[in-house]
Amino acid sequence: MSLRIRDRAGFAAGLLFLAVGAGAVGIARDYQIGSALHMGPGYFPIALGLLLAIVGAASVLRASVVTEDRPGRIALRPVLAIGAAVVVFAAGIDRIGLIPSVFVSALIASKATPRPNVAEAGLIAACLTILSAGIFYYGLKLPFSLF
Questions:
Q1: Which residues, at least 6 apart from 9, have a Cβ–Cβ distance to it below 8 Å?
Q2: Could you tell me the residue range of the domain that residue 42 belongs to?
Q3: I need a labelling partner for 139 at 20 to 30 A (CA). Which of 35, 102, 114, 129 fits?
Q4: Residues 40, 94: one domain?
């Protein structure tokens, strides 16, 4: 019996996830783990490494079962829109504040769809902005300026 890889890119990505996850667990295995309420320095790297390894194993399994379609063209519009949204957020969070950065980034990211709906994008951006301010500024009290 031989292993038949049907999706080489998914298989390679799965192996990479498995390796990084196993590496994180291996590096953090000597750190104190603690508990969910009192996390030690090894808790997060081990938890994240295990989750990454599980995702990698699922990807390897899926790649050996699912048939590979012909690779399509890379959709440039979503790549550019999401990339620009991340850059705008990163550049703006310290300069213009949390609320404008999240709102503008969400509007830019909405351009990733082939036919963006302006009203829908505005509503989603407003909801994300309110949630972000509520969670990160008021809830977690992170040191961001709102404006």
A1: 63, 68, 71
A2: 8-65
A3: 35
A4: no
